[in-house]
Amino acid sequence: MRTLWMVLLAVTLSGCGYNTFQTTDEQIKASWAEVLNQYQRRADLIPNLVNTVKGFAAQEKTVLLGVTEARARVGSIQATPELINDPEAFAKFQAAQGQLTSALSRLLVVTENYPQLKSDQNFRDLQAQLEGTENRITVARNRYIQAVQQYNIAIRSFPSNLTAMMFGYKVKPSFTVENEKEISRPPAVDFAPSKGAVSVD
Question: Which CATH architecture has domain 21-200?
Answer without folding.
Answer: Up-down Bundle (1.20)
